[in-house]
From TrEMBL:
Source organism phylogeny: Eukaryota, Sar, Alveolata, Colpodellida, Vitrellaceae
Protein name: Uncharacterized protein
A single BP term in Gene Ontology: glycerophospholipid biosynthetic process
A GO CC annotation given for this chain: mitochondrion
Superkingdom of the organism of origin: Eukaryota
Family annotation (InterPro entries): CDP-alcohol_PTase-I, HAD-like_sf, HAD-SF_hydro_IIA, HAD-SF_hydro_IIA_CECR5, HAD_sf
Gene3D superfamilies reported for this sequence: HAD superfamily/HAD-like (3.40.50.1000)
Pfam family, one: Hydrolase_like
Length: 357
C-alpha cells in the first residue's frame, strides 16, 4: 500500500508531468513554422507600371491578374524625395488598386538602419522635394542641411550671404536622401565636412551615405536628366583631386545587395499579412520575380542577389531592345508588365498542377 506521502509524491509527479506535457504542447503549438510561397513579384515602378503621372498600358490589368491569382507583390524603386505613405497614395490613385505603405520600398527605406546608428547625433541631410520629411520618417532626429550649416560657417561658401548663428556640433554623418539641387554649395560644404578639416586637429571623420546611385533618370525631357549618382560621382572626383585619397561612400538603392535583403523582409511581411500568419513564422520563396526596365539597376541587382530572385526585363522604359541586354541579361524578357505577370501566373499554375497531378 502506498503511503500518503507516496501518493502525494505521485500526485506531484503526475502534476509536474502534466505541466511539462502542457508546456511541451504549448511550445510545439507556439513554435514558429515555415510557410513556403511558390511565387511572388517585386515591381520597379517608373518605366514598368507608370511613366510620369500616368499608368502604363496593361499595368492595372497586371495587378488585377496578381490579385486574382493570389500572388503576393511589393514595390521596389530607386525613387525618393517623398515618404512611403505618399508613394502608396500615389500608386493607389494611378493603378486603381489599394497599395499599403508597407508594400513600398523607396531608395531611402533601408536607411532606417543608418538612422538607428545615429540616434540623437547630428547628421547632415542633403536632397530636394520633401527630403526633410523623408529624413524624419527614416528616424533621423538631429538634422542639419548644407544651407543651414552655412549660417554656422558663413565663410565656407562666399557666394551666398546668410544670417549667422552660433556654431553647433559638427555632423557625425552625411546622408544624401534625394537629388541635390544646389550643387556648388553642397559640393563645397560636403568636401569640407567629409575631409575632417573643420575639426581643427581633432579626430573627426563623418561617413557619407547615398540613397540612390542612378547617374541618369527619365523625365519629361526627351533625353535623361542627371540623377543623384551624377552628383555623388562629381563629389568623389572633387574630393579625391583635393585630398589625394578616395572618398568612402556607402551606397543604397538598386543594384546594391542591401536593397534586396531588405526587399525580401518586406515581401515576407506582406506574405504574413495576406496569409494571416503569426509574426514569428518563417517565410520562404521558390521564386521572387523582380520586374524592371533598367538593366543596370533592376536586372543587375536581381541577378547578383541570386535565387530565389529571378530578373524580368520589360521594354517599356529605359530598355527597349529587341532581344536581351548584352551587359546585364535578364532571365526573362517580356514586352510589358502585363505580359510578364501573365507568364508568371501561368508558370505558377503549371508548377502547381504538375506537382499535384
Ligand atoms: Mg524603372
Amino acid at each position: 500500500m502506498r503511503s500518503v506521502q507516496g501518493v502525494r509524491r505521485g500526485l506531484v509527479c503526475s502534476a509536474s508531468l502534466h505541466r511539462r506535457h502542457l508546456s511541451t504542447t504549448a511550445a510545439s503549438r507556439d513554435a514558429p513554422s515555415t510557410h513556403r510561397e511558390k511565387a511572388a513579384v517585386v515591381f520597379d515602378i517608373d518605366g514598368v507600371l507608370v511613366r510620369g503621372k500616368k499608368a502604363l498600358q496593361g499595368a492595372k490589368e497586371a495587378l488585377k491578374l496578381l490579385r486574382d491569382g493570389d500572388l503576393p507583390f511589393t514595390f521596389l524603386t530607386n525613387g525618393g524625395g517623398i515618404t512611403e505613405s505618399n508613394k502608396a497614395e500615389e500608386l493607389t490613385t494611378l493603378l486603381d488598386t489599394e497599395v499599403s505603405p508597407d508594400q513600398v520600398q523607396m531608395s531611402h527605406t533601408p536607411m532606417r538602419e543608418v538612422a538607428q546608428r545615429y540616434t540623437d547625433r547630428r547628421v547632415m541631410v542633403v536632397g530636394s522635394k520633401r527630403f526633410l520629411d523623408v529624413a524624419k520618417s527614416c528616424g533621423f532626429s538631429d538634422i542639419i542641411t548644407p544651407q543651414d550649416f552655412l549660417q554656422e560657417w558663413p565663410n565656407l561658401y562666399p557666394y551666398r550671404k546668410v544670417e549667422t548663428r552660433p556654431k553647433g556640433p559638427l555632423p557625425e554623418a552625411v546622408v544624401i536622401l534625394h537629388d541635390p539641387q544646389d550643387w556648388a554649395l553642397e559640393a563645397q560644404v560636403l568636401c569640407d565636412i567629409l575631409s575632417g578639416s573643420l575639426a581643427a586637429g581633432e579626430e573627426h571623420s563623418p561617413h557619407l551615405y547615398a540613397s540612390n546611385p542612378d547617374f541618369l533618370y527619365s523625365a519629361a525631357h526627351h533625353t535623361p536628366r542627371f540623377g543623384q549618382g551624377a552628383f555623388t560621382t562629381a563629389l568623389e572626383h572633387l574630393f579625391e583631386k583635393l585630398h589625394g585619397r578616395p572618398l568612402p561612400v556607402t551606397y543604397y538603392g538598386k543594384p546594391n545587395a542591401v536593397v534586396y535583403r531588405y526587399a525580401t523582409r518586406i515581401l515576407e511581411a506582406e506574405v504574413r499579412r495576406i496569409r494571416s500568419l503569426p509574426a514569428a513564422d518563417n517565410v520562404t520563396f521558390d521564386r521572387i520575380y523582380a520586374i524592371g526596365d533598367n538593366p543596370k539597376a533592376d536586372v543587375r541587382g536581381a541577378n547578383r542577389a541570386g535565387l530565389p530572385w529571378t530578373s524580368v526585363l520589360v521594354r517599356t522604359g529605359v530598355f527597349s531592345g529587341e532581344d536581351n541586354d548584352p551587359d546585364d541579361p535578364a532571365h526573362i524578357v517580356s514586352h510589358d508588365v502585363h505580359a510578364a505577370v501573365k507568364m508568371i501566373v501561368e508558370r505558377r499554375e503549371t508548377e502547381r498542377t504538375g506537382q499535384t497531378g
